[in-house]
Design a protein that fits this description.
The complex is a heterodimer of chains A (312) and B (231). By secondary structure, chain A is an all-alpha fold. Chain A contains eleven helices and one strand, in the order αααααααβαααα. The N and C termini of chain A lie close together (11 Å). In chain B, β4 and β5 form a beta hairpin. The chains are: A mainly alpha (312), B alpha+beta (231).
Chain lengths: 312, 231
């Protein structure tokens, strides 16, 4: 699949934003970790909403006909893309009530704001799941059509969010071993899952050029695609990175998205100043951008079979 | 009704006439124009509803060239319709034709991702998704003589390799052909239940080759010279 940078940046940035919001709600409302000052709560909230909003605006970048974007709320019943749009927008009023509660009442918010915050956190999680299902539900792309896809979107969102949470907390001198521990745990789980995913997609399954052309008892080779220049199909689905590129990037993913931040938090736990969490955040976001690029670049649509690929 | 096409891979000669006729009719039809990009440039491209690809099936000497024209299969389980977030893509309940409402499409490409047959192409000029309409603006046009109320690709095919009809009607020509010739579907394992059906090449009597003259000294020299001398 052609990796569209607007979609890559949208999923990475808003994913981190939703993750940050989920952690903020968990720490603040469920009382995990230390008490947060008024200023710190506002900083977390503004950062989360900022990331989510910037990401959502970027997501419209790949639309060819933006004036109809509002119609994407219409098919909630069948389309995961529609569900994502609805949940993403539904998140805002609940987040706003929670945010207003924090602004007016400080860290000791009333029950209404607390319930709204909890609902917003659940909606953030559901939005992440819907984003994953947009790709996970496609039977045409075997690398995406797996439960690992939504799990990956949720875990990477929450993991990058936990890194951002620890980084922002360090600005207020409030970063505790709890922050570092949660981040390490989430990064570890996300990293292991990504490893399983890469192993899983390396095993070839699904349709072949034989089932695509209906000739199941003979070898089939493409003689001619019937066009001299690229088409919409070759532009959109023909992207073919070299194995060298994908292998190098995979090393980058494990090094930057998981390895570096885990080491950074291990260092923080052993006494290094907590402010270095920002280094971990930069590494994690860079690594996840590489991960998202690979997610698209390595996805082989079945239409490629008609253009000569023997399997996907 | 379940309208669709039957395509005979035995008689299709791969001339692309169906694709040209399709483009000609539909560029001024309900979903037209079918925009062209750089039509007189080095790498001309554009929107087509019908594309023909050419394959070699089997290994020499038991090989065969097969031409496979492909357009929308008007699937019974059309995922392109399910994934569409705007409701622009729809499947008509009365005849099963899958269409795109150009006024509602936001050009997100998601339906093209969900289609395994490459039937949908984004028109970059108009910013909306376009696809085969099964010539819906032709097959119901009562101002046309009855024999012309067929998709443009079917009427134009010089090899008579394309047939249009109702698959729900067991006595229709398409149903009969599928029954008699053992019609097959592309990628049935994905579960889209495409309506368009392909007729496999007929099994023909092998052409005897034992009477072909064996190599002589002169023919061997000729072969060698032909291999060595570049045109």
């Amino acid at each position: 699949m052609h990796p569209a940078f607007s979609v890559i940046l949208f999923t990475v940035i808003s994913g981190a934003g939703y993750g940050l919001f989920i952690l903020l709600a968990a720490f603040h409302l469920a009382g995990i970790g230390p008490a947060m000052s008024h200023g710190e709560l506002i900083a977390h909230g503004v950062a989360a909403l900022g990331l989510i909003t910037v990401g959502l605006m970027l997501s419209t970048g790949h639309l060819a006909n933006k004036k109809n974007a509002w119609r994407s709320f219409m098919r909630f019943k069948t389309s995961w893309l529609s569900r994502e749009a609805v949940f993403a927008v539904l998140f805002y009023p609940f987040a706003a009530i929670y945010g207003l509660g924090v602004l007016l009442q400080g860290s000791e918010i009333g029950p209404l704001a607390a319930v709204a915050g909890a609902i917003a956190a659940v909606l953030a999680l559901v939005t992440l799941f819907s984003t994953g299902m947009i790709y996970g539900c496609l039977k045409t792309i075997r690398q995406w059509n797996t439960a690992l896809t939504p799990a990956n979107y949720i875990l990477l969102g929450v993991a990058t969010g936990s890194v951002a949470f620890a980084a922002i907390a360090s600005l207020f001198g409030n970063a505790t071993p709890m922050h570092a521990g949660v981040a390490i745990a989430l990064l570890l789980i996300a990293g292991i899952l990504k490893g399983i995913y890469y192993f899983w997609i390396s095993r070839v399954t699904g349709p072949t050029i034989n089932t695509a052309t209906t000739f199941n008892r003979a070898t089939v080779r493409l003689l001619d695609t019937g066009h001299t220049a690229g088409t919409f199909l070759t532009d959109e689905f023909g992207y073919d990175p070299s194995k060298n590129t994908t292998d190098t990037l995979k090393m980058g993913v494990f090094l930057l998205a998981f390895g570096t931040p885990i080491l950074v938090f291990a260092a923080i736990l052993s006494g290094v100043p907590a402010i270095v969490a920002w280094l971990g955040l930069v590494a994690a976001l860079t690594g996840v951008v590489m991960e998202r690029w690979l997610f698209f670049a390595e996805a082989k649509h079945v239409v490629r079979l008609y253009h000569g690929a023997q399997h996907t | 009704m379940r309208l669709g096409l039957v395509i005979d891979m035995d008689t299709c000669v791969g001339c692309h006439a169906c694709a040209v006729a399709c483009k000609q009719w539909n560029t001024s039809g309900t979903t037209g124009p079918l925009s062209d990009y750089r039509p007189y440039g080095e790498d001309p491209s554009g929107v087509w509803f019908n594309r023909i690809r050419h394959y070699e099936v089997g290994d020499y000497p038991d090989n065969k060239t097969v031409n496979i024209p492909m357009s929308c299969m008007h699937c019974e389980h059309a995922d392109c319709v399910n994934v569409c977030p705007t409701g622009a893509s729809y499947k008509r309940p009365e005849d099963g034709i899958v269409l795109v409402d150009q006024d509602k499409c936001m050009g997100c490409n998601y339906c093209a991702w969900a289609c395994p047959y490459g039937a949908r192409e984004l028109d970059r000029e108009d910013g909306v998704m376009k696809k085969c309409t099964l010539c819906v603006d032709r097959i119901y046009d009562e101002t046309l003589p009855p024999e012309e109320r067929q998709p443009a690709c079917v009427i134009t095919c010089p090899a008579h390799a394309r047939f249009f009809g109702d698959f729900d009607d067991t006595s229709s020509e398409v149903s009969r052909l599928v029954r008699e010739r053992g019609g097959v579907k592309q990628m049935p394992e994905l579960g889209y239940k495409p309506v368009n059906t392909y007729l496999p090449p007929r099994v023909t009597r092998p052409i005897p080759t034992d009477d072909v003259r064996a190599n002589t000294l002169i023919s061997s020299v000729k072969d060698w010279v032909n291999k060595m001398v570049a045109r």
